[in-house]
Specification:
elongated; 4% strand; single chain; 225 residues; 64% helix; 4 strands; mainly alpha; two-stranded antiparallel sheet
């Protein structure tokens, strides 16, 4: 990840005050995500037993829902927040492109890599693949993107009946395999969110790129008083 202060200073054009607030909001959301019990975990254990005794050790439905609440704000493109991972990536990339410098092109290449990583994470799990055999003998790969889609839009936050039906067809909450793949799909994104968060922190530390948000700081001081 690009961290050199000169690379950032020369590879980006200045952000306006509204854009600075978007950058700060992204960092706030990542900080909220870090408080999730599952985000704090350093490893996950999936025990495969007999007679359907598969289970995710120490992971509750409430913890999954809590992680999903924060994940949705950062990682799901149909969220109107304006501060999802892709929205931030596109915002910063526009500033890199506008710089017209070699440093800006270096940053653009890095953001293209981030986009590729995100696409690959949606296509397949890094740990556990899931292929269904259909009645006609063909197969269907259940991708992380499908799992996240049916969960977010059919179960957790929206009420799309077709997606809820698909969630239940995959086993619903009773399926340890579905829960495992759902957690993995979100967990795989954490490092991606963190990498962009660290980069955003470096941008905000550059006063030439980011004007002081005196209105926001004044409001914060007033609240503290």
């Amino acid at each position: 990840m690009p961290t050199d202060a000169d690379l950032i200073a020369q590879g980006l054009t200045p952000f306006d005050i509204d854009e600075v607030r978007i950058l700060k909001r992204y960092r706030e959301l990542v900080a909220e995500l870090e408080h999730s019990a599952l985000a704090k975990r350093t490893k996950l254990t999936f025990n495969i037993g007999g007679a359907g005794d598969d289970r995710l050790d120490g992971v509750t439905v409430d913890q999954i829902k809590s992680l999903a609440m924060d994940f949705r704000k950062l990682g799901w493109n149909n969220e109107p927040s304006g501060v999802t991972f892709d929205q931030l990536r596109n915002l910063i990339q526009r500033h890199a492109r506008a710089s017209g410098t070699p440093e800006g092109r270096t940053l653009i290449d890095w953001f293209k890599e981030l986009k590729s990583v995100r696409r690959e994470l949606l296509r397949g799990s890094r740990v556990l693949g899931w292929t269904l055999e259909l009645p006609d003998g063909s197969t269907h790969e259940v991708t992380p993107e499908e799992i996240l889609d049916v969960f977010i839009n059919g179960v957790a936050f929206h009420s799309d009946e077709a997606k809820r039906k698909r969630w239940n067809e995959l086993g619903g909450w009773d399926s340890a395999l579905l829960r495992w793949n759902l957690v993995l799909a979100m967990w795989d994104f954490l490092e991606l969110f963190r990498a962009l968060d660290k980069f955003v922190g470096s941008i905000l530390a550059n006063q030439a790129l980011c004007p002081a948000d005196t209105e926001s700081e004044g409001a914060t001081l007033q609240v503290r008083a």
